[in-house]
Specification:
By secondary structure, the chain is an alpha/beta fold. The chain is built from 15 helices and eleven strands. The protein folds into two domains: 208 residues, P-loop containing nucleotide triphosphate hydrolases (Rossmann fold, 3-Layer(aba) Sandwich); 92 residues, Helicase, Ruva Protein, domain 3. It is globular.
């Protein structure tokens, strides 16, 4: 293993990232952007909300990432009757000890997959606020930190709204990225079926060996924190976010937390592309997944059929890029 104390060079970082991409794209059909955004979120220590219809490989993508990075993994299926204690854990009385013992819930893992996050009511979703923001859980006055790295990846079906609860803005704002997954291209879907004839993906993933270890991941995260951002690019980023508060199509624009999230994502993008400095393209490439869930369109814009992505793309065209 590499020594995490030693400064990592961009070429080595790019080599590790490409190794993750290669394994991911070999087992998930036609979703190369998903691999990059999930890895970038991990480097930036952010959480991810994935939207897509059932059957597109959302769950397997998260399982594959945990195997590639040798991280502990847990899955929580959100349902209307799920209680907060089912997520974070609860004290249990041990008769032999004549005392209560805390039994940790499934949130105590490094990669936590929450399936159909919008199927649980607000009371249950509120259990995620502390752990997502502060990476710790407080039960009965005792605070327990999470193992690092720690990332929550939640999924929701954008089509089926029966029996679901809308995610509050405070919870949405805690997700670094909102990733939209669509159907794979014809060639990739065909490849997936042909490979399944010889060995199903459910059998392949458990056999995979980690691509990088804990020390390499620590080094990548440290490099992400050191990526340089010029004052001109910071100004460009802030102007872009502030423009979301001023355009007539947006009722609720991005907050200062959105600007910080976009900066973290841009730094991760630089590392993903083998650089130790950000460029305008890093900001542009991360603007949609960082901002699309942090803005609310006006009723007029929605009646005109506009989408958050369309409005954000227009703002990107309007914002002058520093030379």
């Amino acid at each position: 293993m590499e020594n995490p104390e030693k400064q990592l060079n961009p070429e080595q970082a790019s080599e590790w990232i490409n190794a993750i991409r290669t394994v991911f794209n070999a087992h998930i059909a036609g979703q190369p952007e998903v691999a990059d955004l999930l890895t970038a979120a991990l480097l930036a220590e952010g959480h991810v909300l994935i939207e897509g219809v059932p059957g597109l490989g959302k769950t397997w993508a998260v399982r594959l990432l945990s195997r590639c990075l040798d991280l502990s993994f847990s899955r929580i299926q959100f349902t209307p009757d799920l209680m907060p204690s089912d997520i974070v854990g609860t004290p249990v009385f041990v008769s032999a000890e004549k005392a209560f013992e805390f039994r940790p819930g499934p949130v105590f893992a490094q990669l936590v997959l929450i399936d159909e996050v919008n199927r649980a009511p607000a009371k249950t979703q509120s259990a995620l606020f502390e752990v997502m923001e502060e990476k710790q859980v407080t039960v009965d006055g005792v605070t327990r930190p999470m193992a690092r790295p720690f990332m929550v990846i939640a999924t929701q079906n954008p089509v089926d709204h029966e029996g679901t609860y809308r995610l509050p803005e405070a919870e949405l704002d805690r997700f670094l990225f909102n990733i939209l997954i669509s159907y794979p291209p014809l060639e990739e879907e065909t490849r997936l079926l042909l490979e399944t004839l010889s060995e199903p993906v459910t059998d392949r993933i458990p056999k995979l060996k980690p691509v990088i270890g804990k020390d390499q991941l620590i080094a990548l995260k440290a490099m992400t924190q050191q990526v340089h951002a010029s004052e001109e690019l910071i100004g460009y980023l802030v102007r872009l976010v502030r423009l979301t508060r001023e355009t007539k199509d947006i009722f609720l624009g991005g907050s200062p937390r959105a600007a910080l999230a976009l900066l973290s994502a841009a730094r991760a993008s630089a590392v993903m592309n083998g650089r130790d400095f950000i460029t305008p393209d890093d900001i542009k490439s991360m603007a949609l997944p960082v901002l699309r869930h942090r803005i609310l369109l006006t009723a007029e814009a929605e009646l005109e059929g506009k989408t958050p992505d369309q409005v954000l793309k227009n703002l990107l065209h309007q914002t002058e890029v520093p030379r």
